[in-house]
Amino acid sequence: MGSGMNKPGAFGKVRPVLVVVMSVVVVILVVVVGGKMVIESQLEKKQKSDQEYMYSVVTGTEGKKLIEDELRYADKNAFTSDGTIKSYKILTDTIERNPMGGIMVDIELNDKPDLNLTMIFEKSNSEGKLTVRPMSLSSDAFDLYKSLGFYQEDAVRDKDGE
Asked: Which residue ranges form the domains of the chain, and what is each CATH number?
């Protein structure tokens, strides 16, 4: 009669189980991949929001005033014809969160790339007041600060005390 293709056999019983298993695998993959995409999208939005916030703090009116006040602290005649510090530029592409807290940014002085310092913005926990202070200075910026009397010669020594 026939070749036996119409006979129910082992493959006929396995086929529905295989379809169920494959369906479960596909559903799991869709949930995992979709969930990962949603989490990555939310993380990207948060990072963008954090970056926008940090940018607004540093480049906003209060941030600029704090930077200028800090530079005037080092050079009382800053931004005047008698001052050594004539201008500054906020290097916005360097704005980043400090792992220990606060926001770090590089500042270029007098339109000279070798004359820069990193400043850190922090909020006081007790008052919630925003402050800024120099965190590090390039060699040229250190020399400039030293010439302004900001750092005393004998207070700056290497580890051997020389």
From this structure: 60-155 (3.10.450)
